[in-house]
Design goal:
disordered N terminus, Spore Coat Polysaccharide Biosynthesis Protein SpsA, Chain A, seven-stranded mixed sheet, alpha/beta
Length: about 260
């Protein structure tokens, strides 16, 4: 169950400066470590953080652990989506619970250091808000299957959208101002949400800021990326590129300029 909008666990009434959505799917092995570490990094830096942790239809103890962490006083809003309809669906259903002007997205796997997320936030603090800040996992400790899938996917993205400006489209954390997020009218309910954000940023004239980071191997839990994922990536990207929904959004953006 989600806390009511306007109150996050562990807050004393101060509005957060940054809301991070953390999608969690069967992450019982890792979130007891990654969530507190993430909260501590922002507390040490002196920033008011809110973590909207989305238990995206997990079948393990993910939801129960999130509730326990919130009860310990962490700045955590546990949010349960009963049926997992995709990575993007969990994120989009978590956005209304975010109270801060800046909204971030970060997986619960702890592969990117929490301190890097702090530095990413500091990179956007002085901006005009018309930016997306994201990491580029330049140094990755992926297995061979995931490395091949990632290369094929990012290469295909570049072929379809040569000006996309990133060869690590799914690199997270990402941070974006809530006003820009509203302009994007995001619709993707699956993993396509990440490329949709960068594609629409290109048409809206939103600048992309990338920060190089080291991406660690998972210490706990397992990845959901498999060999068949590469074909699914290609199929879905083509569908998005040629689909009527994106074409309609693009025409509306061009007509307002």
């Amino acid at each position: 169950m989600a806390n009511r909008p306007g109150q996050a666990a562990g807050e004393s009434g101060d509005m957060p400066e940054l809301s991070f959505i953390m999608p969690c799917y069967n992450e019982e092995e890792g979130i007891g470590y990654t969530v507190p570490r993430f909260a501590r990094a922002f507390a040490r830096a002196g920033y008011r953080l809110e973590i909207v942790a989305c238990d995206n239809g997990s079948s393990d103890r993910t939801g129960a652990i999130l509730e326990e962490l919130a009860a310990q006083g962490l700045p955590l809003v546990p949010h349960r989506v009963e049926v997992n309809e995709g990575y993007g669906n969990g994120i989009l259903r978590s956005v209304p619970l975010c109270r801060a002007p800046w909204i971030g997205i970060i997986p619960a796997d702890g592969q990117v250091d929490a301190e890097d997320a702090v530095r990413l936030y500091e990179a956007v603090m002085g901006s005009d808000g018309r930016v997306i800040a994201k990491v580029y996992r330049r140094f990755r400790m992926d297995g061979p299957v995931r490395s091949v899938v990632s290369f094929v996917y990012n290469l295909f993205m570049t072929l379809l959208w040569p000006r996309i400006g990133s060869f690590d489209v799914n690199g997270s954390p990402k941070i974006i101002h809530r006003d820009v997020l509203g302009e994007m009218c995001l619709e993707s309910r699956d993993w396509l949400l990440d490329p949709e954000m960068l594609i629409k940023a290109q048409y809206l004239g939103i600048r992309v800021i990338e920060m190089n980071v080291f991406a660690r191997m998972r210490e706990r839990g397992s990845s959901n990326v498999t060999a068949v994922t590469a074909w699914e990536f290609v199929r879905r990207l083509l569908g998005f590129r040629l689909g009527s929904s994106f074409a309609g959004w693009r025409r509306r953006v061009i007509s307002t300029r």
